[in-house]
Amino acid sequence: MRTEVIAPAARTQLRSGFHFRRLVPLWLLLPSLLILLFVQFYPTAYTIYISLNRLRAGQMIWVGTANFERLFRDANFYESLQKSFTFVAATVIATVVLGLLVAVLLNQRSRFNPFYMVMLFVPWVISDVVAGTVWRWLFQQDYGLIQNLISPLTGGTSLYARPQGAMLIVILATIWRSLPFTSLLFLGALQHVSQEVLESAALDGASRFTSFFRVTLPIIRPTVMVAIILATIGGLNSVGVILTLTGNIPATETASVYLYEQGWRFGDFGLGAAISIIMFLINLILTLVYLRFQREE
Amino acid sequence: MRRFYMFLLLLVVLLSVTVPVAAQDQPAITVWTKFNSENPQNSQDEWMRAAIDGYLEATGNQVTNVFQAFDVINSALNLAVQAGGDVPDLSYVDAQFLGFYDYNGTLTDLTDWITQQSWYDDLAPGALAACTTPDGRVICVPTATPSTLVYYWTERYPDGFPTSAEALLEDCSRLTDQGLYALTFKGTESFGLEVAYHSLIRSSGAAISDEEGRAAWANEAMVGVIEYVRQLFADGCVPEIALASGFDFENSFKDSTAGAILAGTWTYVFSNPVTAPDGTLYDLGSDSILTAAEEGQIAFAPPLAFEGGSPAANVYATAWAVPVGSPNPDAALAFINYTMQSTLNGAFGAAYGSLPSLISARDAEIFQTDYWVTVAEIMDAYGTPMPFLVEYDRGISALADVFARCLADPSLDIMTTLQEAQDNYNAAIQ
Amino acid sequence: MVRSKRQKQFDSFIVNALLILVCLVSVFPVAYALSTSFKGETEVITRPPYFFPRTWTIAAYEQIFRSDLVRYHLWNTFVNAFGASILIVVVSVPAAYAFSRYKFRGSNILQLVILALIMIPTLTNLVALYRMASQLDLLNTNLVMIIIYVATGIPFGIWILKASIDAIPTEVEEAALIDGCGPLGVIRNIVIPLALPGLITTFLMEFVFYWNEFLIAVIMLSNNTMKTATVGLLDFQRSYEVAYHVWMAGSIIIIAPVLITFIVLRRQFFRAMLQGAVKG
User: Fold this and answer.
1) What is the pLDDT of residue A3?
2) Under CATH, which number does the domain B23-145+316-384 receive?
3) What dotted CATH number matches A70-296?
4) What does the radius of gyration of chain A's CA atoms come to, in whole angstroms?
5) Cβ–Cβ gap B248/C141 under 8 Å
6) Which of A127, A293, B99, C108 has the fewest CB atoms within 10 Å, measured from its CB?
């Protein structure tokens, strides 16, 4: 593929001057790279600097690793990491499993009913803040419609005011919001699984279930990886849905909410930056794992 | 290629032209408040709007009000000063943040200015004290002195609201037998700690802070308070929604399924409409609860306290303050002066749901009703300053979180949780 | 292994039933929000709750239309999201073209870095960005929002657009180059028309994303006239008053524009997505 593609560029190079022709890709990339340099790379470096300082009366005061030491002594921070883990694990597993199911269902049909597709995609266009507000209303203790339906099952207690219950609602709302996009990713991948492969598997006597797990799933594995990594990172950094659904209560204080509180509620920029660095490293490790997987494919 | 860059440049320029919607007309002063004067929703907002309009009429000076949510305005002001953000000329502040502002150097010293003002001698001593730092500097101008008390439905408590927390448990079993709640309150976040738990903590003898503004929570008395509140929830005296965020807990008082609410003097402004136990609906906006009180359906009591201890009615003050870095401090002071006229100060108190800070303003007819007389009595008898914590919001939130954790998980060891939170807070302020 | 006709009909019935169930779950919360928004103040606090309003009223919408949400926030949201999405597409197309058609040293590394940037979220940069914005006096402006949105949206834009440009055959471009078109001429005359579904999909995804963006906005914007709609909705919840019917009306107002945009552009979106615009 590559060699054919290079042809047009080579011809430009013949026409243009020597310096310009080698720099064409650079010129095309320049706007993007400049923006990324100033608004992505520089802030990351600056965050490291802030994490080694303390902000007092507008002045940065060098404190070395004091912020990190405070953070590592802070039981609330470990607890918030734990909550992030629970939240991410639950949302990712449920989203991927349900997403596969929905994609397989949709794939059974030769034509996609636009009505279904739009209905299915409603949660995708909804902001996390709006989703949080709406779900909060569904589970409101006294007047929430769903809370009222389930209260005979829970013995009249409210899901919303219990720690596990609050976490459960946040997880459900997040799954609800991320399911459509994940399903569509999988559907796109399923459409590219050739019919012949499936038919030959069927001729070998494989049931539909075994052929899905033995044949289809390995083929769409890269897409599954994309979905997992996107959902993981989205979950790690989710703030809006938690703030609107359960507010500042400790039960749903994940690491991202903890960062928001420390940095902007209490104005502790040094500690906020230190938490940022830790979360950045977690994200970076996940990304590297993903890129490694990808290279193996 | 050049055309492409010209196009990019043009797009950026075009987009930035649409930007300065607010920056077009240079306002004389910008003030941050928790009142939404642009789009008034309640009497507090209406007052702010009237003050701005009146000031413009009286002096020709424009005041631009920037609305901030009530639970973030103090932190946001400090953050703006510390990080060098958009600092307003003047801001609303809550005086319980005094230690926090003093520690961070957020506010301008107003001592010399305030002593020269004509209304200085008219200020209620308690109000002025709320704005005075331990070393005697005045860093804010008090405008009203809200406090805390209990509202209760008389039909639910025919013999009056119990005078002690212990006695409340008996009323609770009586009311839960009828399928009702004894009371409701906000059980989480800093608001819950101030309004619901502060009086219980003080009357139990537990400390919240030491003289240096450090946390001193890990004591047996505090454990006793949390155990008592645990029992309230375990016995079903309080709706569980009290442990969620927001103000949904008020609903059970509004429809009188809860017999009482641990309230602030301002609660009647927001908690409406209300339905009495006999089914009467009071849908009169801010006047709903006051009308129900005049008709004898609702009565008022001092904050909930343990036997042997004195109830603690919070000494709050709403105030004006000039942040460090205020672009136009003189114009800000002129506006403070305008709002400190006795009539306007009285109107603010009435609109906010609080006694005003000027003694002369308290003489207005509106503050002679039963409600305000009761409030004044409670404040005189039980007024208790708020705890002094140098990182007030962080400290109060952390303690509120201990309550929330221990209440949500009855198996959690209270002392350990308190100790952890205390150590953590004290490490943060070093 | 040919399945019987009856078996097929049964399968199809099950598939349809499950899909309808999924659709219902998707739509139900929004439908309930819609019906709540037409209830009155006393009806939202009636026990037990019910779905349809007994008396339909637009009181909640009257309140919303008077509020800052409609007066300022929606317009700000539109300016930020639309401005950023357009700029992202404009800047990403040449970059994606460069990655797709040119071979140069560092190309693969750069692509990996950009892919990694998608995975690294803005949250961890926000402390530094806030400090930078405050020092440049850019807090509370649409400009700072657009700049950050563009920077966070470009990696995703390049990733999707490269996939759709890769899918275009190169013969036409070669002819155009012989005719003396420069690289930008090729992009404008050939790549853009041919990759249009990809462009529209990128625009739509970025627009939906930034219309709904909350975290950057809540941190950078404290001035009420500059806030975006999601921050405004949180402000409603942070006020003392509990008014679920008004909050629901606000939610519906925020959802409506972006849902309509989605319905209008859905064909290109689904086509591009099913062709594998986002792939591993």
Assistant:
1) 34
2) 3.40.190.10
3) 1.10.3720.10
4) 25
5) no
6) C108
